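Need the bound structure for farnesyl diphosphate, inputs here:
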Amino acid sequence: MKDELPQLLPAHLGIIMDGNGRWAKRRGLPRSAGHAAGAANFKKITRYCSKIGIRYLTVYAFSTENWTRPAEEVSALMTLFRKYLEEALRDFRDDDIVVRFLGDTAAFPPELQTLIRETEEISAARTGMVLNIAMNYGGRAELVRAVRSIAERVRAGELAPDAITEETVSSALYTAGQPDPDLIIRPSGEHRTSNFLLWQSAYAEYVIMDVLWPDFGPDDLNAALREYANRSRRFGGV
Ligand code: FPP
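Answer from helper R.:
Posting the output first, comments after.
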């Protein structure tokens, strides 16, 4: 059946929510209208992922490079983050969703930082799907932060350089303790990683789709999940 869900689902799914600007442009609307439509879709797809049994979902909401966009667009995004985090606090309770943030959230306006902290604290006791929202996130910045924290442990005499393993690095990332992403979906047709989960995605399958994020629905997700289930993952073996 065309719309059927496969049996094999990724334990950890990443989504690069791309194409909001183009979606708005095609309709003659300001870019902020595209982000508003994208934010509404973020909520819909998150709840759908929780419903079908995805255990970890990571969405790319704001990169370390996005600050260079026009001030008006950045400000519209901050307003949307506030609105949707408030909603997430309330609505994700019924879905039992745990919300975590990946990235340097100290750079956001103080009210947003408070909301981020509250959202993490209140949802921490839940047991359902873990939703990681990558905000002011960059894969390289995350690795620099990890290297610094490992270097501090070496300087303090807690860790010998020879004892540093891949596990040491994984444990120093924002995603410590979580499985690596199995599948990363990039709507809007771009073939780039854009600094998303650089270390963690070493063996992730990528599915690029020609649909803009605000139009990306459960059927598109199901199609990506079927493509993932049909791929043979060899992790560098044969
Ligand atoms: C990329 O599209 C999208 C973003 C930079 C913003 C994504 C943010 C949301 C969908 C809001 C989510 C809200 C929460 C609370 C997580 P683009 O602007 O680069 O599109 P373009 O490539 O077509 O210009």
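Comments: The chain has a mean pLDDT of 95. Strands lie at 12-16, 56-63, 98-102, 130-137, 183-187, 205-209.
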